Amino acid sequence: MTYSEALKVMKNKQSLGIKPGLERIYALLEKMENPQNKLKIIHVAGTNGKGTVCSVLAKSLENQGFKVGLFTSPWVVDYREQIQINGEFISEEAFTKYVGEYGDVDATEFETVTAVAFKYFYDMNVDYAVIECGMGGAGDSTNAIPTPILSIITSVSLDHTNFLGDTLEKIAQEKAGIIKENGTAVLYPNPKSAHIFRQRCNDVGAKLIEVPDKGNYYDNDIETVKTALKFLGFDDSISNFNPPARCEYISESIMLDGAHNTDGALALEKNLPDRDITAVIGMMRDKDIDSYLKIIAPHCQRIITTKPSNDRAVSAEELKSIAEKYCPNVMAISNPLQAIKVKEYDFLLVCGSFYLARDVRKELFR
C-alpha cells in the first residue's frame, strides 16, 4: 500500500459519516492490543479553544523535556497533522503501515484515525499523549480510554446540536462524560454550565479544579493550560503556539480563522484589527450561520461569500442572502480559490470554517 492509497482508504471511510458510540473503536483497539490503556493521557473536550489548549499544553510539556503525542482535529495543513509527536507529523510510511494493518476494520474515518494515534503514540513510547475530542465527549471515539491522568474541559457552548443536544445543559452533560471515576478535571470558566461538571465530579468521585476567569477567551485558554501544568507538577511557563487557522496571521494584512459558532465569532471579534476589513466567508449548513454573521459581518467593509469543498457547506448565494442583513456590500464567488483573489483590500479576513481554511491556506502563503 502507498500513502496515497492509505489516504484513499480513509476518504472512503468518510461515507460512513459520524457515528457516536464506542463499540466499533473498542473492537479496533482490541485488535491493536489496547494501546490506549498503556498511555498517560490528557483528554480535552469543549466547544471552543480545545485545539489551542491542546497545542499549547503539548508544546509546553515538550519544552520541559518530554516526548509528547498530540492528537487534534480537524486538519488544515496536511492530513497527518492530526497525529504529531513533538511537532513532527506522523510519517507517510508509518501512517501507511497502520492503515494497511487496520484500515479494513469496520470503523468510521475518525474512529480509525483515533485508534491509529493511540497505537502510534504507544509504539513510539511517548511520555504523555494530549488527546482532543472530535465532537462531544462521552460518545466520542477518543473516550475509549480508562481514567486519564487529567481531563480538561474548555469553553462550552451550542454546537453540533443535531448530535449532542439542543440545550447547553445537554451538551455539557455529553462533554462531562470524559471525566472518569477517581480522576481529576480542569474546568475553563463556564458559569452557565459549571454545575453540570461539578455534579459529574461528585457522581464519579473526581476532583474538580476550576480556572479563574481572566476576562477573555485566549487568556482563559492559557490559564487553563497553566492550571493543568501545575496539577501535573510542572513549571507553568507557557510556550505560546497557535495551531493553524485560529486567528492566524498569514501576513500583516491577512488573517485566517476556522471558528464557526457564536463563541468562536466573539473570540474572533476581539482579535479583529481596526482596519477596513474585506472578509471571505464560507460556512457549513448545520451551523448557526445567522448568529455568526450577526457578530462578524458588521465589522466588514465588504464580504465575499464562498462555498468550502464539503458536502455540508452552504452555497455562496445562500450565504450571501444572510450576510446582506448585516453588511451592505456582499458578493458571492462559489470557488474559494477565486474568492480569495480579491483586489485592493486593506485587511483580508478568511473565516467561518476549517474546511475553507483547508481549501485556501496554502494559496494564501504564496
Structural key phrases:
single chain, 366 residues, alpha/beta, 8-stranded mixed β-sheet, 6-stranded mixed β-sheet, 14 helices, 14 strands, globular
Tell me about this structure.
- This protein is α/β, with parallel strands linked by helices and 366 residues long.
- 38% of the residues lie in helices and 16% in strands.
- It has 14 helices and 14 strands.
- A hairpin with a 2-residue loop joins strand 9 (248-251) and strand 10 (254-257).
- Helix 1 crosses helix 4 (92-102).
- The model has no long low-confidence stretch (mean pLDDT 94).
Topology:
Layout: H1 3-13, H2 23-31, E1 41-45, H3 50-63, E2 68-71, E3 83-85, E4 88-89, H4 92-102, H5 109-123, E5 128-132, E6 150-153, H6 161-164, H7 168-175, E7 184-187, H8 194-204, E8 207-210, H9 217-232, E9 248-251, E10 254-257, H10 262-269, E11 277-281, H11 289-296, E12 300-305, H12 316-323, E13 330-332, H13 336-339, E14 347-351, H14 354-364
- The Rg value, from CA coordinates, equals 20 Å
* Beta-strand residue fraction: 15-25%
Tell me the number of helical segments per DSSP (H or I, 4 or more residues long): 14
- The proportion of residues forming helix, as a percent range, comes to 25-40%
**Mass-distribution shape:** globular
Strand element count: 14
Strand order of the largest sheet: 4-3-2-5-1-6-7-8
Order of helices and strands: HHEHEEEHHEEHHEHEHEEHEHEHEHEH
Strand count, sense and closure of the main sheet? 8 strands, mixed
End-to-end CA span? 32 Å
Overall pLDDT score? 94
